[in-house]
Amino acid sequence: MRRPAALVSLIVITAIGTALRLHDLSAESLWLDEASSVWIASHPPGLLIAETASDVHPPAYYLLLRWWMAVGGASEFWLRLLSVVAGTLSIPMIYAIGRAQSGRGAGLIGAALIAVSPFHIHYSQEVRMYALFGLVALVSTWALIVWADRRARVAAAVYVLATALMLYTHVYSFFVLAVHWIWIVSGGRAERARLTGGSASWWTMQAAVAVLVLPWLPSLVRQITKVRTEFWIEPWPLAQIPRAYAFLGGGGELAIAALAIAAAGVWARREARFDSATRLFASLALVPVLAPVLLSQIGPDIFLPKYALPASFGIALLAARGLANLPAAPGVLGGLLLAGLAVWSASRSSPFSGNHEWREAVAGVERTALPDDLVLYSQPWGRLPFEYYLGRTDLATATLLLRPGEEPGRTLARLQHASAGSRRIWWILSNAGPLPADLDRRLTEAFDVVIRRPLWGVEVLLLEPQWGTGRPPGRPPRPPEEP
Questions:
Q1: For 442-464, how does the pLDDT look when each residue is reduced to its tens digit (9 = 90+)?
Q2: pTM score of the predicted model
Q3: Exposed, middle or buried: residue 336 (CB in 10 Å: 0-12, 13-18, 19+)?
């Protein structure tokens, strides 16, 4: 394909990807993690860095989001637009990597796969660091390819800066860095000798990255310790690895088709089986998934599929290379298959849809609450999304932790103690599911449940203590109503 045609095609693909990422950007409420991002980014820089040091994610995204909020405010659309920008820029970056390693055709196919990927569309619409992580991982990898080809000092500088920024964005960056090491080390003796000598050598670049990341090292150690002792990640058995790739591929059928086409295309050309592109793309597809899963088998559980987002780039690039390597007829059929599956995956019910309905929960409370009503959160983190939407300042707030397995009488006693003196209590049950039947029964004996509003991921109860309603003993409570 000639350069002008490729450029026009890339512009069209990027425009489609942008439109898909902007579609319904404010349709759903911010969920807990998004509200947490906003809360952290609202701190002054010093406190922000200290807060992230006690969390499990580095500070780069939050610092960027802080600046972004200073420029355009904190509306849902504007907050999510930062990830839209990062996710959109990833599309031409995929093209640049695919073109550098496999030609313009492969680059365009890879860009198209990422542009319409349900996985990437979702994380390009979230107020989290994943889209930024993906973008800087691609910039770092592209700069490495350019440096390895030309040994240009500018490419070396871009690699160092992008890799350092990547490491300040997400801890899974170390697995992307491992991909780079594998690619360099597996290149053969002559190639290794060429890349490890001179002033702008591989070793020099790695040393420069280490110097830039060194200030964060004490915080990184604390974060790793926290993951080992406190984090909530559930075990991920080896048998569930295919499920991770189905998630990263935007759906099981699409992921299987992409990997099958990748294997067929690579196998169709003997010289491509272990060449530079195959080694890089395969490492990128495998290492960010397999390494943390295997580490989790011998230590604390550290694997979440969304953390392995760069692996989805490897899958797309392998599939693109496979299609480009196939003869014309099979290549066209494979492309149509991938396109059809991508559209089908995007149109059906998505595993990524359905943020918790905090906006709706708060709207009901604001319409109905009286001044000095008490708002009780069942989880401390439920305060963040609730208060993001809460415009009123005349409500008292507190936290009453809903403890799984606690004896209902004990929960009720804590509720009565926390709400002592309050005539109306809004109990915000976040991500708790229905109340246990025994606790629900005891609750209706001590309180009038004036409103019970179950929503996706959150339930709102308006309670009035029976001693405060003036209701004579034995009189049946009022039926719950919708706000």
A1: 999 899 999 999 998 899 999 99
A2: 0.90
A3: exposed
